[in-house]
Specification:
- The complex is a heterodimer of chains A (about 110) and B (about 110).
- Chain A is mainly beta and about 110 residues long.
- Helices cover about 0% and strands about 45% of the residues of chain A.
- Chain A has strands at about 5, 10-15, 20, 25, 30-40, 45-50, 60, 70-75, 85-90, 100, 105-110.
- In chain A, strands 2, 5, 6, 9, 10 and 11 form a 6-stranded mixed sheet that branches. Chain A has a 3-stranded antiparallel sheet with strand order 3-8-7, with no helix packed on it.
- Chain A starts with a strand and ends with a strand.
- With about 110 residues, chain B is mainly β.
- Chain B has no helices and 11 strands.
- In chain B, the strands form 2 sheets. In chain B, strands 2, 4, 5, 6, 9, 10 and 11 form a 7-stranded mixed sheet that branches.
- The chains are: A mainly beta (about 110), B mainly beta (about 110).
- The interface of A and B includes residues 6, 44, 51, 88 and 96 of A.
């Protein structure tokens, strides 16, 4: 069974500080990992996926298969980064491509 | 481009009743997924519909059923409501069953009393 764990429910940092949101997963197949974000009063939306290996809004995430982790990082947090962040996994090699398994989410608050 | 819409926004039902939730997918999308999000939890996959057929199901009992229509809009039906069904129900559409990006609606908040 696939599982995604986000150990921190809440994370607070000050503006300009580095931030790292942790995500660990368990899955024996070929996982595809994502970070979704939900800003206040907005919908859940895709932030980035591990395959693209790009930086979005200054955030990056590297898939570490050895540690089964996909931590989200940003070197200098901004107040507008305050949001709920969800790590999600899908089975890239299975038949239910649409099934996303989400972690419990981390609320990031960036203080001025 | 029209985004994903869901109706109603909120509703309150009594235990044992039945409920139908509706979702209109984003223009050009033929795949709809439904998720249940309990308070303080991440969304949990219920099922996905692709071109009017169920294409994958999560760990939910048969009293959770769905439909997808020729215009790719969708319904989620829940029979014999239980208190634990109280949650935010999210619909997400994508441009294909293999598409990696899902576009979420605002959700329907269901309260079962």
């Amino acid at each position: 069974a696939q599982r995604v764990t986000q150990p921190e429910k809440l994370l607070s940092v000050f503006k300009g500080a580095p931030v790292e949101l942790k995500c660990n997963y368990s899955y024996s197949g070929s996982p595809e990992l994502f970070w979704y974000v939900q800003y206040s009063r907005q919908r859940l939306q895709l932030l980035l996926r591990h395959i693209s290996r790009e930086s979005i809004k200054g955030f990056t995430a590297d898939l570490n298969k050895g540690e089964t982790s996909f931590h989200l990082k940003k070197p200098f947090a901004q107040e507008e980064d305050s949001a709920m962040y969800y790590c999600a996994l899908r089975d890239a090699g299975g038949t239910s491509y649409g099934k996303l398994t989400f972690g419990q989410g981390t609320i990031l608050t960036v203080h001025p | 481009e029209t985004g994903v819409t869901q109706s109603p926004t909120h509703l309150i039902k009594t235990r044992g009743q039945q409920v139908t939730l509706r979702c209109s997918s984003q223009s050009g999308h033929n795949t709809v997924s439904w998720y249940q999000q309990a308070l303080g939890q991440g969304p949990q996959f219920i099922f996905q519909y692709y071109r009017e057929e169920e294409n994958g199901r999560g760990n939910f009992p048969p009293r959770f059923s769905g439909l997808q229509f020729p215009n790719y809009s969708s319904e989620l039906n829940v029979n014999a409501l239980e208190l634990d069904d109280s949650a935010l129900y999210l619909c997400a559409s994508s441009s294909g069953r293999n598409s990696y990006e899902q576009y979420f609606g605002p959700g329907t908040r269901l309260t079962v009393t």
